[in-house]
Write a structure and sequence with these properties.
12 helices, mainly alpha, globular
């Protein structure tokens, strides 16, 4: 890493530690042992379920990526994409680096396909589908559990994040999809070529509504599985109905949106603070909300370790066959 990157990483780690310290300082009775649930058979089973669902979500992410690539005319096996995805998770969540897992995915896929702009576009479009479904899931949670709509600041912040995310996404997609804006970059060089590739990808999805619907369905499945993983983790902590399915349907998307803000490392501090904001009005104790955030982080970290072999050997694999273009 360059000196600037090292400073940036150090600042982000400091911010995360500072936010966690403030949260814990506000709870004098906080016990660090509460982060790890008591090792009973029931809790162990719930933890295993949460970890399995987290891994399943990564498989669905790889499947979502594959569907984007199919729309772009680049065909890759699910096993290969899952390997790249796990390696990316390992980089993002385990290694002390400012180079994100998405950069690794783009790099490895473009080396295999020889199509850097399309590889870049596939990762961008795969991520954008997540931003699209998160606000919808949150709204669904509020609709199926109307009392959640009357929790004051928690409700307003969750709705505000959903609305801001959806509005921002629509603006970005409209700009990139517009022929006068995104289309003008398609035949350019440098970074404009990559923006043009995203434009062409959106155009292909628009021409193939069946592929777009399939992509969105996988996107919904991915986010819903992550909500279920959070529900299982809450059960392992003994939170019961206070952090049940409908509550996490409404608020977990807002947590997911907040934790990707580049103000910490791996969402530490931000995620836990968001859980405190959203769950304490439901009767969850502050230390329990913090423990849920940290437990989800540890589970994700544990699953990310599965990407270590893929990270170590994935960069030395042979290129795939030449991409096969699809009509339209």
């Amino acid at each position: 890493m360059t000196k600037k990157q090292k400073i940036s990483l150090l600042l982000r780690i400091t911010v995360s530690i500072g936010m966690l310290a403030v949260l814990i300082w506000r709870v004098p009775s906080f016990d660090a042992s509460q982060v790890i649930p008591e090792l009973t058979l029931r809790n162990a089973l719930w933890l295993a379920v949460s970890a399995a669902l987290t891994l399943l979500a990564l498989v669905l992410s790889a499947l979502r990526w594959q569907k984007v690539l199919d729309a772009l005319g680049l065909h890759a096996g699910l096993r290969r994409l899952l390997s790249h995805y796990l390696a990316g998770q390992f980089v993002s969540n385990v290694l002390p680096t400012t180079i994100g897992g998405d950069v690794l995915r783009v790099s490895r896929l473009s080396r295999e396909t020889g199509e850097s702009p399309s590889s870049f576009a596939s990762v961008v479009l795969e991520r954008l589908t997540g931003w699209l479904v998160l606000p919808i899931i949150s709204v669904a949670g509020f609709l199926v559990n109307p009392p959640l709509q009357h929790l004051g600041t928690a409700t307003r912040v969750a709705r505000g994040l959903a609305l801001a995310t959806l509005t921002g996404l629509v603006v970005v997609l409209a700009a990139v999809a517009d022929q006068r804006i995104g289309g003008r970059f398609a035949a350019r060089d440098g970074w404009r070529r990559f923006a043009g590739a995203v434009h062409l990808g959106l155009d292909r999805l628009r021409q193939r509504p069946g592929a777009a619907v399939s992509l969105l369905l996988v996107g919904f499945a991915y986010q819903f599985v992550l909500v279920l993983a959070a529900v299982a983790a809450a059960q392992a902590l003994g939170l019961g109905e206070d952090a049940g399915l409908t509550a996490l349907l409404a608020f977990f998307p807002a947590v997911a949106i907040a934790q990707v803000l580049p103000i910490g490392i791996s969402g530490l501090g931000v995620r836990e603070g968001a859980f405190v904001l959203f769950l304490t009005p439901l009767g969850v104790e502050t230390e329990e909300a913090i423990a849920l955030g940290l437990l989800l982080y540890l589970l994700n970290l544990g699953v990310s370790l599965l990407g270590a072999p893929a990270f170590a050997v994935g960069g030395r694999t042979a290129p795939m066959a030449d991409p096969v273009a699809t009509p339209g």
